[in-house]
UniProtKB/TrEMBL annotation:
Presence of the UniProt keyword Oxidoreductase in the record: yes
Protein name: Sorbitol dehydrogenase
Keywords assigned: Metal-binding, Oxidoreductase, Zinc
Entries under InterPro entries matching the protein: ADH-like_C (IPR013149), ADH-like_N (IPR013154), ADH_Zn_CS (IPR002328), ER (IPR020843), GroES-like_sf (IPR011032), NAD(P)-bd_dom_sf (IPR036291), SDH-like (IPR045306)
Coiled-coil zones: none
PANTHER family cross-referenced by the UniProt entry: SORBITOL DEHYDROGENASE
CDD domains assigned: sorbitol_DH
C-alpha cells in the first residue's frame, strides 16, 4: 500500500509498505478520508509534542474513516463492506482505567499518529473492531472522519455536566470550539458566547449557533460573572484566566486547549465561587453520541472542511493548515 511517511528529519515521503496485518479482534479499513489536526501539523513542524518525539519514520493522521475490507478471526465476517468511523485508540482492555470505563486514561494506550504509532495517511489501517464504528449511509466520508474532533467536544460537554438552560462561554473558534458551539446548542444551552481573534471564525460560530461572539483584543469580554460553563478551546492562558473569572458561583471550567504546560490561575476566584476546573484527555464511549448528533442534523461537520488533498499532497495539506482561512484540510488516500 502507499503511505505518506514523516521522517525524523521532518520530510514527507511516499512509501510502499505492506498492508497492516489483521489481528484476531481487529478489522482492516480502507481509508477514505482523514482530517488534518493541529497535532499533525505540530509533529511535522517541530518533531515532537511534550515527551512524544518523532524518532523513527511515522505516518500522521488520526481523524479517519473508511470501509472494512478484512476482519480478524474473532470478528463477524459480515462486517466486511461496512462504512466506518475509526476511534483511533488501542487501550489495554485489562488496565484499571479501561475496566472502570475510562480507557482513554490507560497509561499504556496506543494512539494513531502519536510516536511511535502510525496513523492514517495511508491506504489501509487496522483497528480493534469495537473501535470501527458503523456509520449511516447518509453520512459523508469527511463527516465520518470528523466524528473524532466531535468526540473531543462531547467528552468536554460530559465533563462539564452541560445541561438544559446553561449559559456557556467558549474561548477559541477553531474546529474544536466550533464543534463545542454545536454540542452546547444540542445539549440545550440557552446562551453560547464565543471568543476568538479571527473575525471569520467568529462569524461561523454565530452561524452554527453561538448567540454572541467577541474578540478579546477589543476589550469586549463579559463583565459580570454569569456563565455556568466555560470551555477553553484556545490553549491561550489569558483566555483561560478570563474564562474562569467569567463563571458564576458553582460554575464548571473544562480546559480542552493545549498551550503552555504551566501558568497562573485565579485561585481565590475558584475558591470563593466553588468553581470546578478540570482538563479532558480525548474521549471514551463518545462515538454513538457523535453519530447520533450528526445523523439528526444537530451537528454539521461538513461545514468545517476547507480543502481535500491526495496522499502526494500531504505536505501542502499540512503547510496550509492552521491559518485563519483553513479550518480543516482533509487527506483522501484514494484521491487520484
Ligand atoms: N484535550 C484534548 O484531548 C484535545 C483534543 C484535541 C484538541 N485539543 C486542543 O484543543 C485546542 C483547539 O483545537 P483546534 O483544532 O480548534 O485548534 P485551532 O488552533 O484551530 O483553534 C484555536 C483557536 O483559538 C483562537 N485563539 C487564540 N488565542 C485566543 C485568545 N486569547 N482568546 C480566544 N481565542 C483565541 C485562535 O484564533 C484559534 O481560532 C488546541 O489547543 C488543541 O491542541 C485538545
Ligand atoms: Zn485531532
Amino acid at each position: 500500500m502507499r503511505a505518506s511517511v514523516l521522517t525524523p528529519a521532518l520530510e514527507l515521503v511516499i512509501e510502499q509498505r505492506p498492508v497492516p496485518p489483521v489481528a484476531t479482534n481487529d478489522v482492516l479499513v480502507q481509508v477514505s478520508s482523514v482530517g488534518v489536526c493541529g497535532s499533525d501539523v505540530h509533529y511535522y513542524r517541530h518533531g515532537r509534542i511534550a515527551d512524544f518525539v518523532v524518532e523513527q519514520p511515522m505516518v500522521l493522521g488520526h481523524e479517519a474513516a473508511g470501509r472494512i475490507v478484512a476482519a480478524g478471526e474473532a470478528v463477524d465476517p459480515r462486517r466486511i463492506g461496512e462504512r466506518v468511523s475509526i476511534e483511533p485508540q488501542r487501550p489495554r482492555l485489562d488496565s484499571a482505567q479501561s475496566l472502570s470505563g475510562h480507557y482513554n486514561l490507560d497509561p499504556d494506550i496506543e494512539f494513531y499518529a502519536t510516536p511511535p504509532i502510525d496513523g492514517a495517511f495511508a491506504e489501509y489501517v487496522s483497528i480493534p473492531s469495537v473501535f470501527a464504528h458503523r456509520i449511516p449511509e447518509s453520512m459523508s466520508d469527511d463527516a465520518a472522519a470528523l466524528l473524532e474532533p466531535l468526540s473531543v467536544g462531547i467528552a468536554a460537554a460530559q465533563k462539564a455536566q452541560l445541561t438544559v438552560g446553561d449559559k456557556v462561554l467558549i474561548a477559541g473558534a477553531g474546529p474544536i470550539g466550533l464543534v463545542l458551539v454545536q454540542v452546547a446548542a444540542a445539549y440545550g444551552a440557552t446562551e453560547i458566547v464565543v471568543s476568538d481573534l479571527d473575525a471569520a471564525r467568529l462569524a461561523l460560530a454565530e452561524q452554527l449557533g453561538a448567540t454572541a461572539s467577541y474578540d478579546p483584543r477589543r476589550g469586549e469580554q463579559p463583565e459580570e460573572p454569569r456563565f455556568d460553563v466555560f470551555f477553553d478551546a484556545s490553549g491561550a492562558a489569558p483566555a483561560v484566566v478570563a474564562g474562569i473569572r467569567a463563571l458564576a458561583p458553582l460554575g464548571r471550567a473544562v480546559l480542552v486547549g493545549m498551550g503552555a504546560d504551566d501558568y497562573a490561575l485565579p485561585i481565590s476566584t475558584i475558591q470563593n465561587r466553588e468553581l470546578l476546573v478540570t482538563g479532558v484527555f480525548r474521549y471514551a464511549n463518545t462515538w454513538p453520541t457523535a453519530i447520533g448528533l450528526v445523523q439528526s442534523g444537530a451537528v454539521n461537520l461538513d461545514v468545517l472542511v476547507s480543502g481535500r488533498f491526495g496522499l502526494d499532497q500531504v505536505k501542502e495539506a499540512l503547510d496550509t493548515a492552521g491559518s485563519a482561512e483553513v479550518l480543516k484540510n482533509m487527506v483522501l488516500p484514494g484521491l487520484a
